[in-house]
């Protein structure tokens, strides 16, 4: 697998500042070098990916290596974002990992039917978050072969 000089960012779609802060600290402890870019809403995430709205003039906005997607957000929710991305010929190969407090069978099944690449229930404590960040680092950025357009610099 080709290694980039600068790791591509991970787009985190998360409306909770507390959950994002815990994830950010866990990624640092796990030495996950990919920078995290947070979008606080589904609409902001779509604007980021499609370079519209507040991201319209940012032509150098980095393309993320993957998306960590919360499902339960006000406005455009995670299910809608997932379906939009996976139905778009330009974005459908972008790896999406649902990271949700929900572990309901319905949410898990719906996410996979809509094209999620993985589904993770949010850990309950920092130790769990660090273990999750280490697994993301090891699996998605060491063992897994990502599509070229999502891993190249």
Write the SSE topology:
Elements: E1 10-13, H1 17-29, E2 36-39, H2 42-50, E3 66-69, H3 78-86, E4 96-100, H4 105-113, E5 118-121, H5 126-143, H6 148-151
Parallel strand pairs: 1-2, 1-3, 3-4, 4-5
Helix pairs in contact: 1-5, 2-3
Structure commentary:
With 153 residues, the protein is of the alpha/beta class. It has one domain: Rossmann fold, CATH 3.40.50. 41% of the residues lie in helices and 14% in strands. The chain has 6 helices and 5 strands, in the order E-H-E-H-E-H-E-H-E-H-H. The chain has helices at residues 17-29, 42-50, 78-86, 105-113, 126-143, 148-151, and strands spanning 10-13, 36-39, 66-69, 96-100, 118-121. The chain has a 5-stranded parallel beta sheet. Helix 1 links the parallel strand 1 (10-13) and strand 2. It is globular. The two termini are 13 Å apart. The model has no long low-confidence stretch (mean pLDDT 89).
The coarse silhouette is globular
Secondary-structure arrangement, i.e. CATH architecture: 3-Layer(aba) Sandwich
How large a portion of the residues is in β-strands, by DSSP E?
A: 5-15%
Q: Could you state the order of secondary-structure elements as H and E?
A: EHEHEHEHEHH
Report how far the terminal alpha carbons are from each other: 13 Å
Are there runs of 5+ residues with pLDDT below 50, and where? Answer: none
Number of DSSP helical runs: 6
Main beta sheet: strand number and arrangement?
A: 5 strands, parallel
CATH topology: Rossmann fold
Structural class: alpha/beta
What is the name of the CATH class? Alpha Beta
Integer average pLDDT = 89
* Number of E strands: 5
Strand arrangement across the biggest beta sheet: 2-1-3-4-5
Radius of gyration, whole Å: 15 Å
Specify the helix fraction band.
Answer: 40-55%
CATH homology superfamily name = Response regulator
């Amino acid at each position: 697998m080709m290694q980039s000089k600068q790791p591509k960012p991970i787009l985190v779609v998360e409306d909770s500042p507390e959950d994002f802060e815990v994830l950010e600290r866990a990624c640092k402890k796990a030495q996950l070098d990919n920078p995290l870019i947070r979008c606080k809403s589904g609409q902001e995430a779509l604007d980021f990916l499609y370079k519209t709205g507040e991201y319209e003039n940012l032509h150098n906005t980095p393309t993320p290596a993957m998306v960590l997607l919360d499902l339960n957000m006000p406005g455009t929710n995670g299910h809608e974002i997932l379906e939009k991305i996976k139905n778009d010929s330009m974005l459908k190969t972008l790896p999406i990992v649902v990271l949700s407090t929900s572990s309901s069978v319905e949410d898990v099944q719906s996410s996979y039917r809509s094209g999620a690449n993985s589904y993770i229930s949010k850990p309950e404590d920092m130790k769990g978050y660090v273990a999750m960040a280490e697994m993301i680092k090891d699996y998605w950025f060491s063992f897994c072969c990502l599509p070229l357009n999502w891993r190249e610099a």
